[in-house]
Amino acid sequence: MDSSTGAAPGLRERLGSAVFARVAGPAGPENRARIHGTPGPRWFGPDRPIRTVHGDASMFIGGLRALLLQSLHPLAMAAVEAHSGYRGDPWGRLQRTSTFLAVTTYGTADHAQQAVDRVRAVHGTVRGTTPAGEPYDASDPHLLGWVHVAEVESFLLAHRRFGAEPLDAAGYDGYVADTAHVAEALGVIDPPRSRAELVARLGSYRAELRSTREAREAARFILLHPPLPWAARAPYAVLAANSVAALPRWARTSLDLPRLSGVGEACVTPTGRALTTAIRWAMAPARQASRSAAPG
């Protein structure tokens, strides 16, 4: 059926609105209008790779992978466990994160800086000790660096695998360089600016990563017990399976996640492509409206 006739437009609008409401929250329409409609200079122009990656449905899989990978740093996990409220308000946390990404990627430079300032103020209050007695501080540039590189690698990998418009090598290097601008604003010292630097920086954290009870419990909550209506459980399971399949084997083992054979991964990936294509289709009208509202 032609998507411009019959029932398809109504179905697309309903699905797109449901996804947007879940990810962006009650203030989503207002935030979208402010982000895309406010005139002024941006940190990133319309041709920058960060806009291509962060505007794609592959972010749903990349975001889940990032949360799982980030949990393997015991200091980062302890901070999340004690201060984020991810169990009591998981959607609120998702909505705050998605709004931050949208503002810093597409919003005016002033709004992006204000968003960064708010996050840094919150980080300044997040301190404590792990169950093993190790002190953590969310403003620690080294810890911020881990959260950053785990996130960037996850978004990049998911986009390469599931993105509608995969970038070339220079484009993905550009994406890493774009994200470095945001990372520096948040307090990361000398973040990576190319894929080679990203791989090297990730490797430098490997000795600090380990399985903890908190990380394993967080993985079970994220993957098996999401606060979703039953109708949304099957699509979410596809996202979850693909986020697990995208993890390195050592990370799956550390989180007690099932090991997939090469054949198993080959079977999972097409479901991820199909679902991200469906999400992309459902969200297309909202993206077109955002682009038409954006200045310049």
From TrEMBL:
Top-level taxon of the source organism: Bacteria
GO molecular function: oxidoreductase activity
Span list, region Disordered: 28-48
Pfam families assigned to the protein according to its UniProt record, in alphabetical order: MPAB_Lcp_cat
Domain named ER-bound oxygenase mpaB/mpaB'/Rubber oxygenase catalytic: residues: 52-281
Name of the featured protein: ER-bound oxygenase mpaB/mpaB'/Rubber oxygenase catalytic domain-containing protein
